[in-house]
Amino acid sequence: MELSFAKAVNAGLRAAMEDDPKVVLLGEDIGRLGGVFRVTDGLQKDFGEQRVMDTPLAESAIVGASVGLAYRGFRPVVEIQFDGFVYPAYDQIVNQVARLRFRSEGTVTMPIVVRIPYGGGIGAVEHHSESPEAQFVMTPGLTVVAPSNPHDAFWMIRQAIASDDPVIFLEPKQRYWDTGEIGDEAGIDLHRSRVAREGDDVTVLAYGPTVKTCLEAADEAEESLEVIDLRTLSPLDLDPVLDSVRSTGRVVVVHEASRTLGIGAELAARITQECFYSLEAPVQRVTGYDTPYPPCRVEHDHLPSVERVLDAVAATGEF
Amino acid sequence: MATDTLQEFRLPDVGEGLTEAEIVAWRVAVGDEIAVNDVLVDIETAKSIVELPSPYAGRVAELLVAEGDTVAVGTPIVRISGPGESASGPTGEVAADEAPVDSPLDGEASVDSARADRPQVLVGYGPSQRRRRSRSGRREHHRPARSVRVLAKPPVRKLAKDLGIDLATVPCDGPVVTRDDVLRHRSRLMQAEPAPASAAGSSATSVPVTGVRRATAEAMIASSSIPQATEWVTVDVTRTVELVERLRADRRFEGVKVTPTLVAARAVCLALRRTPDLHAKWRETTIEHPESVGLGIATATPRGLVVPVVRDADRLDLRGLGEAIADLVSTARAGRIQPEQLSGGTFSLTNVGVFGVDGGAPILPPDQSGILSLGQVAKRPWVVGDEVVARWVTTLAVTFDHRVADGEQASHFLADVAAILEDPALAVAF
Amino acid sequence: MGLPISRTLAPDGELVSAHDFTVEDLRGFHRDMVLARRIDTEAYALQRHGELGLWAPLLGQEAAQIGSGRALDPDDFVFPSYREHGVAWCRGIDPAKLLGLFRGTSLGGWDPAEHRYALPAIIIGAQTLHAVGYGIGLTLEGRESAAIAYFGDGATSQGDTNEAFVWAASYNAPVVFFCQNNQYAISVPLERQTRIPIAQRAAGFGFEGVRVDGNDVLAVHQVTSEALRKAREGGGPTLIEAVTYRMGAHTTSDDPTRYRDPHEAEQWAERDPLLRLRRLLERTDPQFEEFDAQVQAEADRLGEHLRESCRNLPDPDLAELFRHVYADVPPELVAQREEVRSWS
Question: Under CATH, which number does the domain A194-316 receive?
């Protein structure tokens, strides 16, 4: 079955709601409208207003209410309409959702999924193209996943909902309309990375929207690139990554988020720790710059592009 | 009417990242006269059905896609022939006081050229439309040589690369190739022939000449062809000894080993500035004056004599010089001096006093302009005023390259060094 | 419900309350509303041409914006959301400057100090807090001036807005909170944001709330003038709820047919702000037709100006933007800027 990314999430949500009556959805415009990207299209009609709720305009309350629902035994799946709007909810996420298991010594569970369309490249206005994932990855108690394709989107949303840990579920809005085959099997687990393309010379690490960029770069590169889709940012699954680095000795990390303290920094530190003796070159990072996201007319100069990835690949050969 | 231009309208991204749309219904037909913003067509996107108004006024020339077609953003969908931009309102006439850039009176060429480079549609044309950029200082792309994966720390990889050694050929005991492995392998490669076996029955033993011994011998042989001379002076260094004691107690010198040798090193730097002829290199037809002092510190190590260099020694203050010297000496004694730390010397310092002797005629290190030796600092009878008193006394000797300097310059230099050691406060004057 | 709705000009064009506007004033309202509507419809079309990535239409809200905008003193400071193109017009901002944000050539487009009009706030409700802080600043300086914050019905649910209400009351800030209740926050109807008229909430926070027919430009002007006067004279904050209707979509990315009954829009069309003033003027102003023709011609010219300006908005230079991240550019950013410059 071939579906767009957005429709794959929709199908995954539907399946999860059919499986478990405790799954409820909250968010702005998710019910009647079906979501500004139509990801929740048709769900309120089929599951009713009590399970698919259009909320007042208040992100902090969306997450805070989900905490209360979780106390009551529900499995809330909440939507933050755009990445840039998550900040009013940040307090509830890091101070409550992330900590209640720890605070309660394991007695309170927060099986909450916070779905966030993120990333740029869609010609949008301010606050609609952000990549805030590092701020969640650095928060103990949260798990963070970033599917890159429709197959992963379909299976990972279901796995995220089934997880007893809170999951920040990052949906790359630039890829919402990309289509792909949904495989019959779940394939791999929620917190596993995957070699998207095998290669011998350079290990390229990506997640979410940059996976496609890196695969395109791999098609063009003279070097043989091994592209790994990280899929999960917290926890990271580094085994395939380290195996690859031990074989190639060269690494390029590609993410839209700005450079300083992005996921690339964590990967560079861990790879250096584990593969120090294998490195032919320092870990290269191809990232957004350390500025706020620019006006969209120049966003493609800010975001990692195929040519910037290829440049970084070549750079690993210069040491 | 001015020459008609053919304007092309491409399917826009109407909703933040949409990539395609279906043509639902044309609202105009070929031949229709239309004004700006008259509705051309209904399209259906992933989100909704949208009416598209015309950016142009004129006559509909050609419908490029059909109802029912699914079309990618950026595809031309209609052509409109008209006088160009700025036809306004139902009458199609331009207001008299309007002076738009794309005036219909300018004619076809200017309108088209103004349009030529500019994509009509803002967003979502898809990756193929995005201009590919290139970088100044383009990098080389090449597939690396496939080799056995070797484990080694990055600095060791660099050392091997600098020495032109393939890491994969370096034998090592453990799983990781170390610096010693690389240097040992290099020494082995440098050996011209194997060491001669002892003659049968002879009681003499022989060891192969390798490593530091060989390097030192080679340097001495090279130096023997350089005309050099030595001068001596004996100095009352009591005030230096007092200074050293004072600085050792000074918080500003905490952690630094302050010794008379350190003061002498500083004195050398100051004196070289005053007598630049002692800081010169013979270059056959010219004499070259190095820009800064690379001070070699002769160091006895378990492997032999090593002379690591403090770069830019004249730019360091006393504390900095002390730290640099201490660092080099400890590194040398641990056998971890790197090749680049042995190069760049312009003048050297050797302290034979630590072995309990007064001095010697040190041999000029090749490609340096001089070397100063320090003897032991010991209490000796000395004349102060008209009295004989016990003072801390040492002997200094400088060997210099006689091609670039004469006894006079060497004497000036040596006298300056001695003067500072005798009265360190003089350094303020230098 | 509790609070009465102030109204001076009824939908049929009849005056139902007193006013002291002159013919010039009334013509001015008409012209400004016509031009505001034209700015809006032209910009909407530009988005459909592909020249803007997005547009947030004000269609139907002209009276709320022009009525309040014209009540402002030059010294008053405006904190808008992202839909107040009519208020920007009143502040003397060239409407072409509104386009950069929607075209993606800029994140703003003007100097707030020049027009006493802050850059649009896309984060819902954020600007209400800014207005309060500004008002506190005015009080600290002893200035007789006011701040006005514009926001919609959805924003009244946001934490920031409620905190702004608390603070405004606590500090007796000279702020007018102008809520354009256009009945929808994207697809979410008013009932989900509040169970009572929005203006009534002010009482809960301890200050006055006023409800006005947002499509009646005269009444809007009257209540806003009064609230501003009160603020300037130290009377504290007022919450004005201008009851209006979002005739268009939330933005050009939205499709209201998915959640709105089309009859609803038809009913509101009868209450159209331009229509009722036109009815009044046609009845009472003998030269109105001639005046209106001039206004329409002016609107046509404005449309061309917008199309022309839009296409000529210069693309920003990404490397140049690095200058504006900090007052003192740190070395790491200088290095990244050089990296950007190495690509062309």
Answer: 3.40.50.920
pLDDT-wise least confident of A59-73, A113-127, B342-356: B342-356
CB B353 within 8 A of CB B374: yes
Give residue B304's pLDDT: 83
Quote the pLDDT of residue B108.
35
Mean local confidence (pLDDT), B86-101: 33
Q: Which other chains touch chain A, taking contact as 3+ CB pairs less than 8 Å apart?
A: B, C
Separation CA B105–CA B34 (nearest Å): 19
Contact between A286 and C332 under an 8 Å Cβ cutoff? The reply is: no
CB-based contacts of A309: which residues, under 8 Å, 6+ apart?
Answer: A204, A213, A214, A217, A252, A254, A286
Which residues in chain C are contacts of A58 at CB distance < 8 A?
A: 157-159
The Cα of B259 is separated from the nearest Cα of chain A by a number of Å equal to 40
Q: Residue B104's pLDDT is what?
A: 34
Which residues from chain A sit within 8 angstroms of residue B132, using beta carbons?
306-307
Extents of the domains making up chain C: 5-313, 318-344
What are the chain C neighbours of B10 within 8 Å (beta carbons)?
50
**Quick check: A298 and C318 CB within 8 A?**
yes
pLDDT of residue B102: 36
Q: Nearest CA of chain A to the CA of B5: how many Å?
A: 28
Q: What percent of chain C has pLDDT over 70?
A: 100
Structure ipTM: 0.92
Nearest to A278 among B130, B140, B149 (CB): B149
In 3D space, the residue among A204, A207, A195, A205 whose CA is nearest the CA of residue A169 turns out to be A207
pLDDT tens readout for residues B352-372: 998 889 888 999 987 899 999
Overall size of chain B counted in residues: 430
* Minimum-distance CB partner of C123 among A127, A260, A296: A127
- Whether A2-181 and A194-316 share one fold: the answer is yes
Residue type, position B260, single letter: P
Residues listed for chain C: 344
- List of E strands, B311-352: 347-351
Q: Give the C-alpha separation, C226 to C72, whole Å.
A: 11
**B143: helix, coil or strand?**
coil
**Cβ within 8 Å of residue C316, ≥6 positions away:** A294, A295, A297, A298, C105, C106
With 0-12 / 13-18 / 19 or more C-beta atoms within 10 angstroms meaning exposed / middle / buried, residue C341 is middle
CATH 3.30.559.10 assigned to B227-429: yes
Q: Token match 């304007």: residue?
A: B7
Q: Are C227 and C15 in contact (CB under 8 A)?
A: no
A284 touches C314 (CB < 8 A): no
B402 is catalytic: yes
Count, in order, helices (H) and strands (E) of chain A.
Answer: 12, 14
Quote the pLDDT of residue B47. Answer: 74
Cβ atoms C198, C156 nearer than 8 A: yes
Helix (H) / strand (E) element for B395: namely: strand B387-401
Q: Are C67 and C218 in contact (CB under 8 A)?
A: yes
Q: Do the chains contact at C332 and A290, CB–CB below 8 Å?
A: yes
pLDDT value at B114 more than 70? no
- Span C5-313 CATH architecture: 3-Layer(aba) Sandwich (3.40)
DSSP-derived 3-state class of residue C241: strand
Q: Inter-chain contact B86–C308, Cβ cutoff 8 Å? A: yes
Task: Give the chains touching B; criterion: ≥3 Cβ pairs < 8 Å.
Answer: A, C
Least-confidence region, from A159-163, B64-68, B188-192: B188-192
Q: Which fold has domain B3-142?
A: OB fold (Dihydrolipoamide Acetyltransferase, E2P) (2.40.50)
Longest Cα separation, chain B = 124
Matching CATH number, A2-181, of 3.40.50.970, 1.25.40.420, 3.40.50.280, 3.40.50.1100:
3.40.50.970
